[in-house]
Amino acid sequence: MSDAEETVEETSVPIDQNEARSMWPFLVAAGVIAVVILGIVIATLVSPVEKNVTDSDRLSVAAGNFIKSRSETGKYDPALSCKGFDENASPLKIAAATGGTITFDKLSDPAVDGEKATAQVTFTVSGAQSTSTWHFTRENSRWLVCNS
Question: What is this structure's pTM?
Answer without folding.
Answer: 0.61
